[in-house]
Specification:
alpha/beta, Immunoglobulin-like, TIM Barrel, 2 domains, binds ligand IDC
């Protein structure tokens, strides 16, 4: 268990805090319990449980955490967060302010840096129940008493242990022995929104129950993603690469461009991001790079130009990793913009050991798309880095018939895939029911219709 309470070391845990001195907040007793739910070498994810231990309801709460120099909050959920210097204030998200007597709620955040809070207050009083803010013991350890993700290659029967460093062989993805293989796994949702869904329990479930081979780490660039905090999101991605590796899973690092559709808009960011990620992870066998998610409204020539500038940045650090290039028309091989894979075969990216991305949403993309994939697979190495069981909106009816036809085709062609999404988003493409990630149970009982089906497909024996 990497879960630990900070009580022993830093004294942020829990406590009945009398808040009679706090103006504008009810005089009552609240506790705030801080738990690290996931950690990696450059950051961690934490959960704070706020409990109303009084005998009457409260209508709001406020938790203030002070972090040491070098550690910052990257993002948070189920809360509204503001910062003043190194003190972060967390208030209700809107719907979780009112707590009945004895009730509790929790919020979470991701920190860049390893420093744990040096002070915690709930409603202006110390989380340890005293009237002054908690001060840390001088012997506070700077590293948590946890086992960091292992950096030695996993042994045994995990996907990475069996297959090792991957490479492209002809139109296939091959393992370290030159055997053509197929990887099957799940994509995260946007880390800026669903970071809470990627924790010890959920990742253990993905590796052990789902028997997945692959975690796609979907880092949006816009919409509150990378561009708002490059260091923080880079750290979060690196942490998940480690977590995947610790479980013997491949990590597909997705630079999730979407709007604007021209990846060149983010060229400078892509170079910075991939330089940092590939330098740090160069010696890992489990990393695969996806340099742009879904180019749209841009020519193939524009995508190719982008790829030929980003790929050398990765290669300079990590010469042997597989790199996946998005394709025109939201990675439809051009079909969704009236083109087809012929423009790629006629003018391929000038690089080796690369694959081309194809995406589909089963309720929207039917036989004409399947025909194009079958045709393209004869000459291009393809990787389905994202697909949904639903419409291209991410919602609507789950189309199990079309999904089944698609996955049968991918299995037959040995095309690897990742499903959108391993999250509890309130949309039918999500594998978990809405609200699941607020808890710790990622078992069969909390799966959506889509998740139940995907798990049944992914957990069957691999072809390694
Ligand atoms: C969707 C999410 C949805 C989010 C939207 C905009 O499911 O919650 O509001 O993005 O960011 C894609 C994209 C992927 C989309 C998904 C479903 O790669 O970001 O996610 N989709 O619309 N391409 C086709 C479908």
């Amino acid at each position: 268990m990497r879960r630990w309470r900070i009580l022993a070391g830093v004294a942020v845990v829990a406590a009945a805090a009398t808040v009679a001195t706090v103006v504008a907040l009810p005089a009552s007793a609240e506790t705030a319990a801080f738990t690290v739910t996931n950690s990696w070498s450059t950051g961690y994810q934490a959960q704070v449980e706020v409990k109303n231990t009084s005998s009457s309801p409260i209508t709001t709460w406020r938790v203030q955490l002070t972090l040491p120099a070098g550690t910052t909050v990257v993002n948070s959920w189920n809360t509204t967060q503001s910062a003043s210097g190194s003190t972060y204030t967390f208030t209700p998200a809107g719907w979780n302010g009112t707590l009945a007597a004895g009730a509790s709620t929790s919020f979470g955040f991701v920190a860049n840096g390893t420093g744990r809070p040096t002070s915690c207050q709930v409603n202006g009083a110390s989380c340890d129940g005293s009237s002054t803010p908690t001060t840390p013991p001088t012997t506070t350890p700077t590293t948590p008493p946890t086992t960091p993700p292992t950096t030695t290659p996993p042994t045994g029967t995990t996907p990475v242990a069996i297959n090792g460093q991957l490479r492209v062989c002809g139109t296939k993805l091959c393992n370290q022995n030159g055997k053509a293989i197929q990887l099957r796994g799940m994509s995260t949702h946007g880390l800026q929104w669903f970071g809470k869904c990627y924790n010890k329990n959920s990742l253990d479930a993905l590796a052990n129950d789902w028997k997945a081979d692959l975690l796609r780490i979907s880092m949006y660039v816009q919409e509150g993603g990378y561009e708002t905090n490059p260091a923080g999101f880079t750290s979060q991605v690196n942490g998940l690469v480690d977590e995947a590796g610790a479980r013997g899973l491949y990590a597909l690092v997705d630079f999730h461009t979407l709007t604007p559709g021209d990846p060149n808009y983010n060229l400078a960011r892509a170079k910075t991001f991939f330089n940092e990620v590939s330098a740090r992870n160069a010696n890992k066998k489990n990393i695969i790079y996806e340099i742009t998610n879904e180019p749209n409204g841009v020519s193939w020539a524009g995508i190719k130009s982008y790829a030929e500038q980003v790929i050398p940045v990765i290669r300079a650090n990590d010469p042997d990793a597989v790199i996946v290039v998005g394709t025109r028309g939201w990675s439809s091989l051009g079909v969704s913009e009236g083109a087809n894979s012929g423009e790629i075969t006629a003018n391929p990216v000038n690089a080796s050991n690369i694959m081309y991305a194809f995406h589909f949403y089963a309720a929207s993309h039917l036989d004409n798309y399947r025909a194009e994939v079958q045709r393209a697979a004869a000459s291009l190495p393809l990787f389905v880095t994202e697909f949904g069981t639903v419409t291209y909106t991410g919602g609507g009816q789950v189309d199990l018939a079309s999904t089944g036809t698609w996955l049968d085709l991918l299995d037959r062609l040995q095309i690897s895939y990742a499903n959108w999404t391993y999250s509890d988003a309130d949309e039918s493409s999500a594998a978990f029911r809405s609200g699941t990630c607020n808890g710790s149970d990622y078992g069969s009982g909390v799966l959506s219709q889509s998740g139940t089906y995907l798990k049944s497909r992914i957990s069957t024996p691999d072809n390694f």
